[in-house]
Amino acid sequence: MTASLVTPGMQVSTVAKCAAGEGTIEVDGKIVATTIGVFSIEQGFGVVMPQKELVSPVVGDTVICEIVKLNEKNGEAMILAVEGKPGSIQPNHLYGQFHVTGIVDRYMHQTADAVRRRDVCRALIKEVEPVVRIDFRERDDCGVLHAICPPCGENLIAHQDGDWNVKCETCGYQAYRALADNFAAGWAELDQGASALNNSGKRWGSAAEAMFGKGPSGRATFIAEDVREDGRERTYFRFEGEGGGGRGSQRPRHSPGCKLFIGGLPREIGTDELREMFGKFGDMSDCIVPTDDNGANRGFGFVTYSQKSEADAAIAELDGNKINGRRIGVRDADSDDKKGKKGKRKDPEGAKLYIGNLPFKATEEQLREVFKGVGTITGLNIITDNAGKPKGFAFAFVKEKDKVEEIVKSVNGSELLGRKIRVDVAQQKKRNNNSGGKPEKSSRELRAMREEEEDSKKRNRRPRPKKD
Fold this sequence. Notes:
Blueprint: E1 4-6, E2 11-14, E3 19-20, E4 24-27, E5 30-33, E6 37-42, E7 45-50, E8 54-55, E9 62-70, E10 74-82, E11 88-89, E12 95-99, E13 120-127, E14 132-135, E15 143-146, E16 157-161, E17 164-167, E18 174-175, H1 206-212, H2 215-218, H3 225-228, E19 259-263, H4 271-278, E20 284-288, E21 300-305, H5 308-318, E22 322-323, E23 326-327, E24 329-332, E25 351-356, H6 364-370, E26 377-384, E27 390-398, H7 404-411, E28 415-416, E29 419-420, E30 422-425, H8 443-460
């Protein structure tokens, strides 16, 4: 039979033609390859001979690896070769994981302070199942063998200067690496290994502690443009209070009345949707919907126009409009009205009614139809949650204040979409004359406050010592 190159999982024959041999298995009467190689039938057995010998690392082996992933307290390295075992490494043993405590005999704040991506290292195999785990700390010949300068891409050399033990002769970059004895020497024998520059067991000096204190962003290194090769405009990290300019210089200034605040946004509205909504009124110099740590919007946004007339047109057109069931508010971001200095918003004229037991699918038009011929609706608001979903009740304002009791009797119990709605005069919040005009707390709020006070007393109560 003619030999052919096969890959794992490929059907190479059937049990009618041969039996499963080396590099194959039988699955439902099919002969399937388990490795990359050349398939042939020899003496009635289907065999896949690998083009290169496959090797599997075992505990105690030494491997050459390249750092490919770094987290704060752990990392991952791609195993390039097993020393003393030439051949190809199987996929399940291709990557080794390590912890920050297994890099060097010093306290490291994070893994990137001792190794960097693209560093070539020697490591010791500690475990192979269920995942490969490697260690750089136990032997002096384990650690970084080769490293390049992050800013300029040149090779780093071993150079002791206080806390730092590597240096770039081209740009002057200095840093710390967990060096192996043969760092930057290939396979040459050294009189004194480079691991002596790791200062094992010593405390960090003031220069390193000052850098560590700034956090990961403060000690990040930007790759040089000729190495990065992506053409993006580079932005640099700056700590608050460092560098020129104050708060006023962090954002471009705008003319009075050109910046708008948009409140009541549904959670699914982002910056792109807000820009599309407000872009028809004029050129915008800024548009943003702030988000929280989970990426969800915070329910409001800002838009800045170049002309005040454009901002006024947006307010007139969109203020009070409904988006996905939520009524948004659009106003001047710099006005005192935003801060509540011009008083609260006035309710529509008329008596306020509460409408409960509403179907979730009920619309304003259907509600107005219920009051048709009974009372004149001057305002209607179906209450929704933060996601824009109706909460099952609404408030309506009727013009006929003197006939409010008759209107309630007429529409209370009316059927709407299969449900009988409940209509009553909305209760006004009572004012406490002794609290400066502030509304009194409801009985539910007072009960919750009492329960919280009782819980705090239970938590603070110390257990009595047991008597002998």
